Amino acid sequence: MGSSVLISGKKDSGRWGTAHPSIADELPASVVPYQGFKTADGDIFIGGANDKLFRILADKLGKPEWKTDAKYSTNNDRVKNRKELESLIEAETTKKTTKEWLDILEGSGMPYAAVNDVMGTFNHEHTKARGMVKEIDHPACGPIKVINTPVKYSNADPSIRTPPPLLGEHTEEVLEGLGLNKDKIQALKQSGVVA
Q1: d(CA 147, CA 149)
Q2: 34 with 110, same domain?
Q3: Structural domains of the chain, count
Q4: How far is CA 88 from CA 1, 165, 188, in A?
Q5: Which residue in 99, 161, 148, 144 sits closest to 122, CA to CA?
Q6: CB distance 145 to 133 below 8 Å
Q7: Looking at the domain assignment, is residue 138 inside a domain?
Q8: Burial 32-55 (b: 16+ CB within 10 A, else e)
Q9: What pLDDT score does 22 carry?
C-alpha cells in the first residue's frame, strides 16, 4: 500500500485500519465501541473499551443520557446493541472534523487517534521526522520516492543502498552464483524462463 501511494502520488483506495478483516472479528466484537468512525472530513479511532471510558465518550459526544441507557450502560449491553450504538456514535462524529474531535477528546483519558490514510501517514510530522520517505535516483525512472528502512538504531544509520532493480538486472549475477555457466543462462533467457 505504501509503495503504491508513493509511486502514484494518489490517496489509497480505501479504509484499512480497523476495517481490516484480521482485526474486525477479534477485539471489536468483544469491546464496544473500539473502532474507527467517520468524521466530517476523515476518520477517528475511538476506544471506549470499558464502562468508564464509554461514559467519558458519551459526555464528549454530548450524549450523557447514553451512560444510563439500559442498552449501553455496560459493555455486555453495548455488544448486544453494537450496530445501533455504532450508528448513533457515527451520527455524532460526522458532525465535526477529525481535528475538532481530537481537540474535544484531548486530556479525556480515553484512547483515540486520527485515522490517517496512507498519504496522510507519509505527510505526518512523525513520519517526516523519522525520515521514512527518501527520494532516490532510479536509472530508468529518474527521481522516485521510496519507503526508508523502518528499523532505527542509536549507533547505526541504515539506509537505502540501491534503487529497486530493473527486470532481469541481476539475473546473470544470481544464476552464476548458483553455479550456472553463461551458455546455460543465455539458453534460459532465450527460452523466456528468466529475464
Answers
A1: 7
A2: yes
A3: 2
A4: 31, 50, 62
A5: 148
A6: yes
A7: no
A8: bbbbbbbbeebbbbbbbbeeebbb
A9: 33
Domain carrying residue 191:
165-195
Give tens-digit pLDDT for 22-41.
333 344 447 899 999 999 99
What pLDDT, on the 0 to 100 scale, is given for residue 191?
A: 96
The residue ranges of the chain whose pLDDT is under 50 are 19-29
- pLDDT on residue 150: 86
State the pLDDT at residue 14: 62
- CB 61: neighbour CB atoms within 10 A? 21
- Domain assignment of residue 29, yes or no: yes
What pairing do the DSSP bridges indicate for beta strands 43-47 and 34-38? Answer: antiparallel
Does the model's pTM come out above 0.85?
A: no
Q: For the CA atoms of 59, 65, 67, 69, what is the dihedral angle to 10 degrees?
A: -160
Cell numbers linked to 147: 519507503
Residue 52 lies inside a defined structural domain of this protein: yes
> CA torsion sign, 93 to 95 to 99 to 104?
negative
